[in-house]
Amino acid sequence: MTACLLLAVSGAQAHRVNVFCWVDSEEVVCESTFAGGGPVKSGRIEVRAESSGRLLLTGTTDAKGRYRFLPPQKAREEAWDLKVTSIADMGHKGSWTVRGGEYAAAKRSGPGNGETDPEAARSGPQAGTQMAEPRGTGASAQEVEQALSRALQEELAPIRKSLAELRRDRISLQDVLGGLGYILGLTGIALFFAAKRR
Amino acid sequence: MHISEGVLPPSLLFGGAALGLLGVGAGLRKMRQIEVPLVGLLTAAFFVASLIHVPLGPVSGHLVLNGLVGLIIGWACFPSILVALLLQALFFQYGGITVLGVNTVNMALPALLLSLACRPLIRRDHRLLNTLGAFVAGGGAVLGSGLMVAGCLTLAGEAFIPAATAVLAAHIPIMAIEGIVAVFAIGFIKRVKPEMLRISTESRS
Q1: Nearest C-alpha neighbor of B83 from the set B46, B29, B37, B113
Q2: d(CA A32, CA A198)
Q3: Distance CA B167, CA B20 (A)
């Protein structure tokens, strides 16, 4: 029983939820992690239009902390900025804004229509673009474009990953020393006033 | 333990801030000049403790150390924890500015109550009672804070039992570790610098 409880909350102890989203063909992939490492497993995801605050989509993250969604038709047409909020247990949450220009500009590649599918999300960012069979010679301009965008997606995947890593704030030594410096200063101020009070 | 921004309703944030302000005021009034450096030292300890991650099986939490802070400096734990939480919010983005009051009360109130209850045990010249007092105050403060966090989340609309089990299950190992840390810290202080405990325990009430 206790073991179940412990498992249920595994990785959910650090404090801050980091969300990073990137555009994969027309879909948006969001990865939520806790500061200090672990993915936010089965955390609640809310997608809202940034301007109106209207709730567009909700979902849950998979075991890797990922959630993949296709922005609604209207959002794509009008290039809304989307605010993705990831809510973990114990009152922890974090958010990320996907600029409308990022996904609205992305040309749809691959024939698959991106219905939000948690199974597909589990196998990483490349899974969304489906591999079309090569169809002999004399590729049309459209086919070349599709192949190109597919190849680009694959090439860019590692870069996106390292970008996500970079965005994940780590606490630096400067932060710690800075904080200790403030405490020292405040102690000094407190001593000053305590001495004056006498 | 740190509740994030935007989770709690405004009424709760104001309530927490008001309660926190009362505690901080009382703490500052009761703090004597001779205690100030000690309060600063424990503030620094609390500030840094959250960076010490304790990986234990599937759970990895970090130290809170509110019990120890309360045990040594008593009422002054309110201003101390407020400052440490403010700096954690600014530097590490733990918690947040609007939830500062609630988080301060959540962490300082159980620490203060347990410290008032356990100090008589620690003042005694009895090894076993000292150990017991330090362990209960150190571990119990984490338990109390966990319950208060769960309570706040309940008021914000979550069901109490799941919220509480999640918070507590995550903190069971932390409680044990904090209890042990407090036992060693108090044991060490009693041996090396017993007047450190006397200063704060004899502060006017």
Answers
A1: B46
A2: 53
A3: 22
Q: What is the pLDDT of residues B133-165, one digit of tens each?
A: 999 999 999 999 988 988 888 888 777 777 777
Determine contact: B29 vs chain A, CB below 8 A.
no
Cα B21-B25-B30 angle, rounded to 5 deg: 150
Q: What is each CA distance from A126 to A120, A121, A122, B91, in whole angstroms? A: 9, 9, 10, 35
Rounded-to-integer distance, Cα B24 and Cα B101, Å: 10
Is A16 touching B (CB cutoff 8 A)?
A: yes
Q: What is the residue whose two structure tokens read 């003042």?
A: B123
Question: Which residue from A19, A44, A22 is spatially nearest to A33, judged by alpha carbons?
Answer: A19
Rounded Cα distance between B115 and A127, Å, is 56
Asked if B3 and A16 come within 8 Å (Cβ–Cβ), the reply is no
Which residues of B fall within a CB distance of 8 Å from A11? 58, 60
Residues 6 or more apart whose CB falls under 8 angstroms from that of B183 comprise: B131, B134, B135, B138
| A–B interface: beta-carbon pairs under 8 A | 126
pTM of the predicted protein model: 0.71
| pLDDT for the residue B195 | 79
What is the side-by-side strand order in the sheet with A66-69? A17-24, A27-34, A66-69
Please answer yes or no on whether B87 and A179 come within 8 Å at the CB atom: yes
Domains of chain B, each with CATH number or no CATH: 10-201 (1.10.1760.20)
Kindly state whether residue A172 falls inside one of the protein's structural domains.
no
Domain carrying residue A104: 2-127+143-167
Q: To the nearest whole percent, how much of chain A has pLDDT over 90? A: 6
